[in-house]
Automatic annotation (TrEMBL):
<protein>
    <submittedName>
        <fullName>Uncharacterized protein</fullName>
    </submittedName>
</protein>
Length: 85
């Protein structure tokens, strides 16, 4: 499997986990474009897209978990703000 397909497949796998819908499926056209369906035999949820556009589309369907921020991250950001001209 090519790196392109692996990146797209990973995006779909993350979507399955976030949404709880294990039926999402990705297909690839002969021209190398990707599209998403909600299950085998279902109509596509998007037009065939280039890899970057496809990954952005899939990531936009269901938001990811909130980013964890530690106390050290907050302290570091405060230091950056103080040093800014």
């Amino acid at each position: 499997m090519s790196g392109r397909a692996t990146r797209a497949t990973s995006a779909v796998d993350r979507l399955k986990v976030r949404s709880g819908n294990a039926k999402y499926s990705m297909s690839r056209t002969g021209s190398g474009h990707f599209f998403l369906t909600e299950g085998a035999g279902q109509p596509p949820l998007c037009a065939p897209l280039e890899l970057d556009d496809f990954v952005a589309f899939v990531n936009g369907i269901s938001p990811g978990p909130p980013k964890r921020v530690s106390k050290l991250d907050i302290a570091f950001e405060k230091q950056l703000i103080k040093k800014a001209p």
